[in-house]
């Protein structure tokens, strides 16, 4: 077995001879008919292979003890409880010994990334609707991002917040890695922003408030996302924010990192032109990106958008001009979130 497959087997634990258990999971009561053109898509793109129990594994973190209901777990946070008040259909999600591609009906493509594609999918036996992210192992090896993918799986599978996209499970075969993700019914926020050009302040305020709560949750768990931008934010079935794409995220209990990563337009001055000897930064890089995001929601474009050289210079100088049509209160929020000297995150209440 190759090193990449070995690493994914170590991240998962099989059930052995333990009997399957059922967990109540809230999902939209959505039907996913598999059309003929979608069947050809499945055959040509993600053709099911013969199941091999030695290479296909189930993410054990989603297991629930036999005598404990999912809703009463001690690890359920206040953030999770927000979901319990929303009307949704209850179905039983199987806790299976091993997942494989044949268990899913594959629907329309939802998106395409650098190393794979995302499809709408339905678990055949119980009708559980999800998104299936398919990654090509050879492409991951060639780009030398195996460690990045492993870290994404490890971090995202441990996160449970209504504004963070859930990673339910993962499995793999000889050529591909499959991530079973929550389905975000309204798609990419970026497309909504491009269509609207800019958001009205009440709508932007709702999104930013949800983003702030999700980031507070992440930072309390010592997770830094490091790539907050509209393309990495989805909208759920009720229009709620879902932070996704944890490829650049890191679990940093010391809260100090040195890696230069992310997307230039959303990077803070301390990453672009560090003024300290150790060149390190902390979770405030996500808060800077939140300020940039607030500006973009209200204005329709990122505040430092230019050529790479000019963008770097503008960020270093803090060259941000907020248009006059933005309210005084919104301007004040943008400047405070984007100024590390003024912002005191998560002070004790």
From TrEMBL:
One of the Pfam families matching this protein, by short name: Pkinase
Protein kinase domain: residues covered: 104-349
Residues at the active site: 227
GO cellular component: chromosome passenger complex; kinetochore; spindle midzone
Catalyzed reactions: L-seryl-[protein] + ATP = O-phospho-L-seryl-[protein] + ADP + H(+); L-threonyl-[protein] + ATP = O-phospho-L-threonyl-[protein] + ADP + H(+)
InterPro entries in the cross-refs: Aur-like, Kinase-like_dom_sf, Prot_kinase_dom, Protein_kinase_ATP_BS, Ser/Thr_kinase_AS
PROSITE patterns: PROTEIN_KINASE_ATP, PROTEIN_KINASE_DOM, PROTEIN_KINASE_ST
The protein's Enzyme Commission number: 2.7.11.1
Highest taxon of source: Eukaryota
Polar residues composition bias: residue spans: 35-57
SMART domains, A to Z: S_TKc (SM00220)
EC main group: transferase
Cross-link Glycyl lysine isopeptide (Lys-Gly) (interchain with G-Cter in SUMO2) residue location(s): 229
Region (Disordered) residue spans: 1-85
Bias type Basic and acidic residues, positions: 11-21
GO biological process: attachment of spindle microtubules to kinetochore; homologous chromosome segregation; meiotic spindle checkpoint signaling; regulation of cytokinesis; regulation of mitotic cell cycle spindle assembly checkpoint; regulation of organelle assembly; response to mitotic cell cycle spindle assembly checkpoint signaling; sister chromatid segregation
Alphabetized UniProt keyword annotations: ATP-binding, Kinase, Nucleotide-binding, Serine/threonine-protein kinase, Transferase
GO molecular function annotation: ATP binding; protein serine/threonine kinase activity
Residues that bind ATP: 114, 133, 182-184, 231-232, 245
The UniProt record lists the keyword ATP-binding: yes
CDD domains assigned: STKc_Aurora (cd14007)
Family: Belongs to the protein kinase superfamily. Ser/Thr protein kinase family. Aurora subfamily.
Record's protein name: Aurora kinase
Record organism: Daldinia eschscholtzii
């Amino acid at each position: 077995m190759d090193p990449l497959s070995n690493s994914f087997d170590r991240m998962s634990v099989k059930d052995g001879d333990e009997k399957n258990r059922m967990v109540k999971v809230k999902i939209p009561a959505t039907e996913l008919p598999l059309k003929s053109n979608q069947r050809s898509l499945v055959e040509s793109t993600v053709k099911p292979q013969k199941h091999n129990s030695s290479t296909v594994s189930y993410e054990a973190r989603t297991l629930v003890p036999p005598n404990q209901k999912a809703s009463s777990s001690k690890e359920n946070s206040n953030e999770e409880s927000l979901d319990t008040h929303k009307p949704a259909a209850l179905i039983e999600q199987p806790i299976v010994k091993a997942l494989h591609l044949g268990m899913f009906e594959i629907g329309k493509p939802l998106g395409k990334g650098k190393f794979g594609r995302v499809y709408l999918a339905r678990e055949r036996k119980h009708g559980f609707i999800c998104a299936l992210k398919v990654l090509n192992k050879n492409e991951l090896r060639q780009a030398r991002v195996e460690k990045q993918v492993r870290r994404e799986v490890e971090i995202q599978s441990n996160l449970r917040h209504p504004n963070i996209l859930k990673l339910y499970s993962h499995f793999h075969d000889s050529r591909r890695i499959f991530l079973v993700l929550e389905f975000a019914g309204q798609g990419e926020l970026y497309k909504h922003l491009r269509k609207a050009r800019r958001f009205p302040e009440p709508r932007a305020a709702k999104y930013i408030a949800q983003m702030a709560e999700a980031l507070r949750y992440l930072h309390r768990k010592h997770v830094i996302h490091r790539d907050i931008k509209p393309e990495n934010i989805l909208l759920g079935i009720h229009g709620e924010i879902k932070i996704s794409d944890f490829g650049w995220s890191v679990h940093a209990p010391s809260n100090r990192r040195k890696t230069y990563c992310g997307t230039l337009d959303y990077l803070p001055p301390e990453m672009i032109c560090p003024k300290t000897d150790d060149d390190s930064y902390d979770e405030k890089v996500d808060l800077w990106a939140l300020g940039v995001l607030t500006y973009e929601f209200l204005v329709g474009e990122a505040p430092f958008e230019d050529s790479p050289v000019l963008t770097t210079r503008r960020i270093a100088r803090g060259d941000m001009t907020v248009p006059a049509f933005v309210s005084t209160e919104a301007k004040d929020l943008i400047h405070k979130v984007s100024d590390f000297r003024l912002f005191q995150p998560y002070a004790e209440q």
